[in-house]
């Protein structure tokens, strides 16, 4: 996604996102190692905006799963469109279709599946997307287990549809407001970092630079970071 920390620093700066010494190396390593990135911190610390800034920097799309209490597999992965399946079956029957095995396979294909954000993220072909799993601390451990296959094997096993493997590996950003601790299985498959609201810099609270003066300060900081991380090239 990014060829070097220098490119990442430049691209993020172009989006106007605040870069600091903790963010840059962790984002670069997560992208290079194809490891999901967990960002923990209070509301207003720029966690969600970071995912959108990385996507903008990489010129790709964001697939967002907004987590909440009760979110389920249908919302996250998707489900078969039963109405469309019935219409197709009726049309085949009306035209004298009697070879049921091919029809059954078609009915259980992606064309009849309403895709959720997790599945859509695996189907990007030319360039990987950014998959944002927002506020993962709101889901239970059962839902975490559903995510684990995606985050560790880059695939999803879906009843009747089968196993869908990633065409390109998405850059995954998980955010947490730390309402509860994320399970150990998830932690073992990710890189983690923390974001804090900094009262000394009002622009850092939202993760964006809203003033030209702040952006100029950021340019000077990026130049220093370039020197610090040039050994990674």
Q: Short description, anyone?
A:
By secondary structure, this protein is an alpha/beta fold. 43% of the residues lie in helices and 16% in strands.
Q: Can you lay out the helices and strands and say which pair or pack?
A:
Layout: H1 5-15, H2 23-33, E1 37-40, H3 47-58, E2 62-66, H4 73-76, E3 78-80, H5 82-94, H6 100-107, E4 113-115, H7 117-122, E5 130-134, H8 141-153, E6 155-158, E7 162-165, E8 171-176, H9 184-188, E9 191-194, H10 212-229
Parallel strand pairs: 1-8, 1-9, 2-5, 5-8
Antiparallel strand pairs: 3-4, 6-7
Q: Proportion of β residues?
A: 15-25%
Largest sheet: 5 strands, parallel
Structural class: alpha/beta
Radius of gyration: 21 Å
Global geometry: elongated
Major sheet: arrangement of strands: 2-5-8-1-9
Task: Describe the protein in words.
The structure is a single chain. With 233 residues, this protein is α/β, with parallel strands linked by helices. It is built from 10 helices and 9 strands. It has helices at 5-15, 23-33, 47-58, 73-76, 82-94, 100-107, 117-122, 141-153, 184-188, 212-229; strands spanning 37-40, 62-66, 78-80, 113-115, 130-134, 155-158, 162-165, 171-176, 191-194. It has a 5-stranded parallel beta sheet with strand order 2-5-8-1-9. Strands 3-4 form a two-stranded antiparallel ribbon. A two-stranded antiparallel ribbon has the order 6-7. Helix 1 crosses helix 3 (47-58). The protein is elongated.
């Amino acid at each position: 996604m990014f060829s070097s920390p220098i490119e990442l620093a430049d691209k993020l700066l172009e989006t106007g996102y605040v870069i600091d010494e903790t963010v840059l190396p962790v984002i670069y390593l997560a992208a290079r190692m194809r490891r999901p990135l967990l960002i923990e911190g209070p509301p207003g610390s720029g966690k969600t905006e970071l995912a959108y800034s990385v996507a903008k920097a990489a010129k790709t799309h964001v697939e967002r799963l907004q987590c909440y209490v009760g979110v389920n597999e249908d919302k996250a992965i998707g489900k078969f469109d039963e109405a469309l399946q019935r219409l197709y079956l009726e049309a085949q029957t009306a035209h004298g279709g009697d070879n049921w095995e091919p029809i059954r396979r078609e009915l259980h294909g992606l064309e009849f599946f309403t895709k959720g954000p997790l599945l859509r993220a695996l189907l990007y072909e030319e360039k990987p997307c950014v998959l944002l799993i927002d506020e993962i601390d709101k889901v239970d451990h059962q839902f975490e287990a559903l995510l684990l296959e995606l985050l560790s094997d880059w695939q999803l096993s879906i009843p009747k549809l089968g196993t869908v493997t990633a065409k390109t590996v998405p850059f995954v950003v998980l955010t947490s407001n730390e309402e509860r601790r994320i399970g150990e299985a998830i932690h073992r498959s990710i890189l983690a970092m923390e974001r804090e609201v900094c009262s000394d810099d009002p622009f850092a609270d939202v993760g964006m630079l809203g003033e030209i003066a702040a952006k100029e300060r950021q340019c000077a900081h990026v130049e220093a970071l370039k020197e610090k991380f040039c050994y990674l090239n």
